[in-house]
Amino acid sequence: MAPMRLDVISLAPEAFAPLQGLGVIGRAFGAGIAELHSHNPRDFALDRYRKVDDEPYGGGAGMVLKPEPIYAAFEAIPVLERRRVLLMSPQGQVLRQADLQRWATDYNQIVFLCGHYEGFDERIRSLADEEVSIGDFVLTGGELPAMVIINGVVRLLKGTVGAAASLEEESHSSLLLEHPHYTRPANFRGQAVPEVLRSGDHGAIARWRSEQQQERTRERRPDLYARWLDKDSQPVLERQSQT
């Protein structure tokens, strides 16, 4: 299987170097499951000073990334058949686990456009298929959000995580948060492992874990719990509408 190709357009390409040695993610790159390529717009600047930004039309604070170097860097990247271009932006849709799963499954190339300074020239947005945010806050650049997505996508690729089943039970894989985990000792400083987990009754254990997932999500993330309830009731509503 060909590796997932990840292309990053960034003024700070050195920020991505640590990913190559980061635990299972680093091993995935070393094993050829994914490959990471960085492209610095300064290398495509049109003037002797390698200028990539300019003052905004209409005035205002800060500098804006020019379109020419970004477009040139983008157009120099090889195009694979199933490619997705993501613009890192606080104006984008907030990242969800389902997005990571979709990108890891449906595409074999992801291009990341990382902003800097005050922002992008608006014409750069036309390069992107999606604009993505990792939360309702602003950072100095798009490098950290891009690294978050790279980590989240690569760990889902076949061969990265040894036990694939562990990916199916973790938080957000089904909108519910993950159930509690315990290991030895059975009693630590007065905190005992729930008896059901030591019972050997796999049916009871499965029910307990499901109940814990629902309870945790309801208490900690009522927004997710509401979405889970809606998702769970949708087939019922569809069946009722058809009868």
Description:
This protein is α/β, with parallel strands linked by helices and 243 residues long. The protein folds into 2 domains: 4-154, SPOUT methyltransferase, trefoil knot domain (Alpha/beta knot, 3-Layer(aba) Sandwich); 169-242, tRNA(m1g37)methyltransferase, domain 2 (Trp Operon Repressor, Chain A). Helices cover 34% and strands 18% of the residues. The protein has helices at 23-30, 67-75, 97-106, 143-154, 165-168, 202-220, 222-242; strands at 4-9, 34-39, 53-54, 64-65, 83-94, 109-113, 119-120, 130-133, 187-188, 191-192. The strands form 3 sheets. The chain has a 5-stranded parallel β-sheet, sandwiched between helices. Strands 3-4-7 form a 3-stranded mixed β-sheet, with no helix packed on it. A two-stranded antiparallel ribbon has the order 9-10. Strand 5, helix 3 and strand 6 (109-113) form a beta-alpha-beta unit. Helix 3 crosses helix 4 and helix 6 packs across helix 7 (222-242). The longest helix is centred in the last third of the chain and has 21 residues, at 222-242. The chain is elongated and about 70 Å long. The termini are far apart. Mean pLDDT is 90; it is low at 234-243.
Summed up:
The protein has 243 residues and is α/β, with parallel strands linked by helices. It has helices at 23-30, 67-75, 97-106, 143-154, 165-168, 202-220, 222-242, and strands at 4-9, 34-39, 53-54, 64-65, 83-94, 109-113, 119-120, 130-133, 187-188, 191-192.
